[in-house]
Amino acid sequence: MLCRIAIFLLAFAGLSAAQSSAANTSAKIAGLDLKALDTSVNACEDFYRHACGSWIKNNPVPADQSRWGRFNELQENNQKILRGILEAASTAGATRSSTDQKIGDYYASCMDEAAIERKGTAELQPLLQEIAALSAKPRIAGLVADLHARGISALFRFNATEDFKNATQMIAEVDQGGLGLPDRDYYFKEDDKSKELREKYVEHMKRMFTLAGVNEEQAAANAATVMKIETALAKESLDRVSRRDPNKIYHKEPKSRLLEEMPAFDWPRYFELSGAPVFDSLNVAVPDFFAGLNKLIETTPLEDWKTYFTWHALHSSASLLPKAFVDEDFSFYGKTLRGAQEIRPRWKRCVSYTDSDLGEALGQSYVEKYFPPESKKQMLELVHALDKALRADIHSLPWMTETTKKQALRKLDSISNKIGYPDKWRDYSPLEIVRGDALGNSQRANQFEFRRDLSKVGKAADRNEWGMSPPTVNAYYNPLHNNINFPAGILQPPFFDNAMDDAVNYGAIGAVIGHELTHGFDDSGRQFDGDGNLRDWWTEADAKAFEERASCMVNQYAAYQAGGVNVNGKLTLGENIGDNGGIRIAYMAYKQSLNGKDAPVIDGLTGDQRFFIGWANAWCNNSTEEALRTQVQTDSHSPGEFRATGPLLNMEEFQKAFDCKVGDLMVPEKRCRVW
Question: Residue 73: how many CA atoms within 13 Å on its side-chain side?
Answer without folding.
Answer: 16
